[in-house]
Structures are given as C-alpha cells and as structure tokens.
Amino acid sequence: MTYGGHAPLRDLPEKDASDAAASELADLRRQVEELRQAVRARDDFIAIAAHELRNPMAPILGVAELALTTARKAKGTCPPRIVVLLERMQRLVQEYVGRAERLLHVSRIGAGNLRLEPSSLDLSALVLSVAQRYEVVAARGRSRLDLDVQAGVIAVIDQLAVEEIIENLLSNALKFGIGSPVTLRLRSNGQSAQLDVQDHGIGVSADQQARLFGRFEQVVAQHGGVGFGIGLWVADRLVTAMGGRIAVSSRLGEGSTFTVAFPLAPPEPDRMTHEPASG
Q1: Contact (CB, 8 A) for 238 and 277
Q2: Of 17, 27, 153, 258, which residue is least crowded by CB atoms under 10 Å?
C-alpha cells in the first residue's frame, strides 16, 4: 500500500528510505518555518491595524470631551439634549478606542511585549464606572444589570487592563445571557479581590469550557454573535500577568459565572511582563 503517492519507508531499500526520511523532514521544517512567518505577518498586521485604528480617534475623542465640557458649563444656554448626545458620542468613541486597544494587547501579548503599569486606584469606583457604560447595552437586550460592589476596595492595578477584563466579561454575559439578569459582584478580603460576572443565559458545555480561554475561540454553536474571538483569551492573559486567575462555572441552559481573583498589590516585577503566546 502506498501513502501520499509514495511507497512506505519499510518497503524501500535502506539508502532510499534514509533519503526519503531526510526529504520528508526537510519538507516539514520548511512548512514549520512558513507557518512561523505567517504567524509573524499576522501579528505585525494586527499591530499596524490597531495603531491605524486608534491614532486618528485620539484627537476626535479630545474634541468630543472638550465639547461636552463646554456644553455642561453652558447650563442655561445649551439644551440638555445636546449634553446627552455629546455624552453618547464620548462613550462611542471610547468604545472604539477600546477595541483598538484590545487589538494592541493581542499583538503585545503574542510578541511577549506586554508590560502593565500598576497604580493605586479605587477598584470599586472603577468597576461601577465600567458597568455604567453597559447600562444602555443591557437595556437594549432587555437584561437587568445587578450591581453588588463592595465599597472602598483599593488596589494597585493597571487600570486599562482591569477595565478590559471587566468589559470582556460583561459584554459576553450580556450577549450570551440576553433577556436575563446579569450580576456584577466585587468582594475583597483585604489581601485579594474577587470579581464575579454571572448570567443566566445559554451556558457553556464542559468540553467548550476547556477551550474557552484559547485564542480565537468562540461559542458559536448556540449563538450567532460575531467578533474577534479573543476577548476571553486576552482577559486570561491580563489576569495572569497581574498574578491572578480566572475561571468559569457553567451548565448548559443555566448560565455561566466567570470569576476573576487577583491580589490587591502587584506581583514581583518579573511577573508584570508576559511570555509570548504559543500558536
């Protein structure tokens, strides 16, 4: 029997079998190198695209924020509706910039260049601020957003990283739990903080849970949503870089709970960078 148009190595003379094995090994090495180059080209494209998407929006966001500040100061002469529209514009631009930042995180994690910049922040206020951005999304999806946030939790964290983690988990919960309540909970024991995002939607099967934090993985069998498929992968890498952990508990038809736990103080300096991702 032949395979791929070639006789099995065991049926070939010793020298011919050795030559065939060497040729196959050379082909495999060439294919591996081509795949590595393709991955590098992909990561380079993502980084360039993220910069091109983000940079033009920075001045637009600045103008929107200036216009909003001006409108708020002109209380008697500026119609309230204008303030509302400018606030909405500010949120939309911030969300757009956030998507570009997510792509940048992907390229930096892949290249091993992610470096967090922790500072002392009111984590409770940060969680509530991010949740406020999703009130409109929750209302549009007929989902009640329940907040159970312990006040006064102070942590030395990277603000952008934590915002992205919360945004990824909230957006997933509202997408896959559409029409049902979503709970955002924050608790601290003085040493670490625990963030829970719970929905009562479609849930995730056991085999999908094992792959959920992989790169470009999506739960598409039960949902028609689209996206990069990198949100949970990025969240997992960011949590790990902060010395924390992320886990999911879920049952099909009963919803999911994502739990993030991380220390209130940053890990050792060498933990604040991330090794290159495989694949």
Answers
A1: no
A2: 27
Tokens 């050792």 locate to: 268
Tokens 């942590």 -> residue = 155
Is the overall model pTM greater than 0.85, yes or no? no
Given the candidates 3.90.1200.10, 1.10.760.10, 3.30.565.10, 2.60.120.10, the CATH classification of the domain at 119-271 is 3.30.565.10
CA 180 to chain centre: 23
Q: What is the CATH number of domain 1-111?
A: 1.10.287
Task: Give CA–CA dist 167/160, Å, rounded.
Answer: 10
How far apart CA 202 and CA 225 sit, in angstroms, is 13
Whether residue 241 contacts residue 274, with contact meaning beta carbons closer than 8 Å, is answered with yes
Residues in the chain, overall count? 279
Residues with Cβ < 8 Å from 70, sequence gap 6 or more? 78
CB atoms near residue 4 (< 10 Å): 5
